[in-house]
């Protein structure tokens, strides 16, 4: 008779799964002890990088102990089940109304919004509302609805390319350049016509962290309307900046203070300071979200509108967002975001002093900045080599090409999030200085075969 080896008495690393190669592509036949299965998975994820040292991602990697406890208390809640979890549904409503007020909606009582899995879903909902309203208006006028287009910067996040692909909308990319580092309204009239459903403005370009001047884009669209009669709305993709600008640049006019801005999206799990899995989208007035896209869900004898691509989804992150709003308030969010920006500007100033580099921006918008090698500095190495040298020390600092007309330009970028302290930043800056000096001392070129971007947009 064979004797089972996965008992509590058997040493951990002598049990099946630990003493053998764990299953990869087929569910194993036999069960294992909970702590054995835990140990296997725990040990495998040690091969992942340290999320706190991942300066490629915008996604939050730190919350306090009370938030973690709340997460444990609520990870079984399903956001769609508003009848079973009516208070979670009410808290979702509280959160997007708080955001509507933060973003200067004329009246939060007449706005409408929803939580989403992330800002990518939120962007797609904003795009769908644009498309449906455009279709309705065209049909009412007896016009063709087969060729919608959406105008945006060539530096948009890939979610907008996905939206256009998935929902049959022509993307019209306005190229960025050395002279126009963002979509700033310059030359916009070349891309607008009667089939344009809207324009996307980004508060924090993924490639560099720079704000697109939404007020200037709105002015350009005002001029286009005066000339052509075309009334084109704006969706603000505020994945990061919508949770930075209200606190650090409150006088910057980018939000619902501009009448042309119909909707704004953000990532709760970026500078909203919540763990991954949360986005938000708010429309300045309910009229800008077509009724036929909204489903009514009954709970507690009433009705709550729901508009989402996903059905079942976690409710815990919504509760974490409410916790963060209550925990921090305006003053706390300002302090956290200012600390991140202080670290970003400390790092960008230090990198600017290294002779090899030239800043693209310095982190004065969102706490994100990028730099490039100075022209003619060296033929022996490039930013991908620096990326790899830093990775060996645990730091993930991505290098990648810029979009379209700037595709020959490679930059390196740092995203500063809550949890990257000034002390850690000093360690990072020393690592960049050390590795740059190492590369500058090379007497022959480094190999370039197999190099690839460290981040995908």
Automatic annotation (TrEMBL):
<dbReference type="Pfam" id="PF00282">
    <property type="entry name" value="Pyridoxal_deC"/>
</dbReference>
<keyword id="KW-0663">Pyridoxal phosphate</keyword>
<feature type="region of interest" description="Disordered">
    <location>
        <begin position="1"/>
        <end position="22"/>
    </location>
</feature>
<protein>
    <recommendedName>
        <fullName>Glutamate decarboxylase</fullName>
        <ecNumber>4.1.1.15</ecNumber>
    </recommendedName>
</protein>
<comment type="similarity">
    <text>Belongs to the group II decarboxylase family.</text>
</comment>
<dbReference type="InterPro" id="IPR015421">
    <property type="entry name" value="PyrdxlP-dep_Trfase_major"/>
</dbReference>
<dbReference type="InterPro" id="IPR015424">
    <property type="entry name" value="PyrdxlP-dep_Trfase"/>
</dbReference>
<dbReference type="GO" id="GO:0004351">
    <property type="term" value="F:glutamate decarboxylase activity"/>
</dbReference>
<keyword id="KW-0210">Decarboxylase</keyword>
<dbReference type="InterPro" id="IPR010107">
    <property type="entry name" value="Glutamate_decarboxylase"/>
</dbReference>
<dbReference type="InterPro" id="IPR002129">
    <property type="entry name" value="PyrdxlP-dep_de-COase"/>
</dbReference>
<keyword id="KW-0456">Lyase</keyword>
């Amino acid at each position: 008779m064979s004797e089972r080896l996965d008992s509590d008495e058997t040493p951990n690393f002598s049990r099946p799964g630990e003493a053998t190669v764990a299953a990869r592509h087929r569910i194993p036949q036999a069960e294992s002890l909970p702590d054995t299965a835990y140990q296997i998975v725990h040990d495998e994820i040690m091969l992942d990088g340290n999320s706190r040292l991942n300066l490629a991602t915008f996604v939050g990697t730190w919350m306090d102990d009370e938030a973690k406890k709340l997460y444990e208390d609520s990870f079984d809640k399903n956001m769609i089940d508003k009848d079973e979890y009516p208070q979670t549904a009410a808290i979702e409503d509280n959160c997007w109304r708080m955001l509507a007020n933060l973003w200067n909606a004329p009246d939060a009582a007449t706005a409408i919004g929803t939580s989403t899995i992330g800002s990518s879903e939120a962007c797609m909902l904003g795009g769908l509302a644009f498309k449906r309203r455009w279709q309705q208006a065209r049909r009412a006028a007896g016009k063709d609805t087969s060729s919608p287009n959406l105008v945006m910067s060539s530096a948009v996040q890939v979610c907008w390319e996905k939206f256009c692909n998935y929902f049959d909308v022509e993307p019209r990319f306005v190229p960025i350049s050395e002279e126009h580092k963002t979509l700033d309204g310059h030359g916009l009239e070349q891309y607008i016509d009667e089939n344009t459903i809207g324009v996307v403005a980004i508060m924090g370009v993924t490639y560099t962290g720079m704000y697109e001047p939404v007020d200037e884009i709105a002015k350009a669209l005002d001029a286009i309307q005066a000339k052509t009669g075309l009334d084109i709305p704006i969706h603000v993709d505020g994945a990061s900046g919508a949770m930075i600008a209200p606190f650090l640049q409150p006088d910057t006019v980018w939000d619902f203070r501009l009448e042309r801005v119909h909707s704004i999206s953000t990532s709760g799990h970026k500078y909203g300071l919540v763990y991954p899995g949360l986005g938000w989208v708010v429309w300045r007035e309910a009229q800008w979200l077509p009724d036929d896209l909204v489903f009514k869900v009954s709970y507690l004898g009433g009705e709550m509108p729901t508009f989402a691509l996903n059905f079942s989804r976690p409710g815990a992150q919504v509760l974490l967002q409410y916790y963060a709003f209550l925990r921090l308030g305006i003053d706390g969010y300002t302090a956290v975001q200012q600390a991140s920006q202080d670290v970003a500007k400390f790092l960008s100033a230090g990198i600017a002093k290294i002779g090899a580099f030239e800043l693209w921006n310095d982190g004065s918008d969102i706490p994100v900045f990028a730099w490039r090698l100075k022209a003619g500095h060296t033929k022996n190495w490039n930013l991908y080599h620096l990326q790899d040298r830093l990775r060996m020390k645990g730091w993930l600092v991505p290098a990648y090409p810029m979009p379209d007309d700037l595709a020959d330009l490679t930059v390196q970028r740092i995203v500063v999030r809550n949890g990257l302290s000034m002390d850690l930043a000093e360690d990072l800056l020393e690592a960049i200085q050390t590795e740059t000096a190492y590369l500058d001392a090379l007497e022959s070129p480094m190999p370039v075969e197999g190099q690839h971007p460290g981040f995908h947009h």
